[in-house]
Amino acid sequence: MRIIAAVLYLLGAMLYSYPERWIHYFKYPDEKKRQDANYYSLQRLVRNLLKLLGIHMEVQGSTIYEEPVVYIGNHRSNFDSLMMIAMMEKPLIFIGKSEIKKFPFIGRWFQDIGCLFLERADNKKSLKVINEGIDRIRRGYSVVIFPEGGRTNVDGVKDFKPGSFKLAARTNVRIVPVTFYNSEACYEKTHWFQPADVRIRIGEIVDPQALELQSTVQMAKHLHTVISQDYEEMKK
Fold it and tell me: What's this model's pTM, rounded to 2 decimal places?
């Protein structure tokens, strides 16, 4: 019954959202303002959807940053992105794999809030996306990256790919570590939607310059240590 209610709500919300996004298109000539308006619409939808599915988030740490930041998180579920949208008060965008664009409904939504998509097999296109990400950070966007390179199904945090830290290295923005625990219980554990209690820790903001993290390799190792420690603490 819970899943039926969520599906019916999602279908209705999606039908409503299309004209709403068209209104935003004409109301906000500025691209960022339009994408921010779409973000808040999507946030409302996602919060209601998670509630209907019985997914409860226990969030530790600040969910508001006035400055543009790069959020770095471990990745255990497709719900991680939705939960980021639900809990973060200020608009943000994701840089993720191009396959996300193929997801029904969600792929279009992610494009409409300004997300960028990497073509992993095409270095030239990937470089273009990185440069677009740098431009967006400089225009005030906050960006979410999952540097493990995909969802992990093992207990713990896989090594972070240093290339994921190029945006932070080239813009000198600060980094916010985000640790997810038990988000795979929403779907991936059973391959069916399940109520779940998910713990999320938003760690203290990291200033790479102050810590003298001069390379993407150093940033990757430092953030991996922080998030791994938080993950182990959340298991207790």
Answer: 0.94
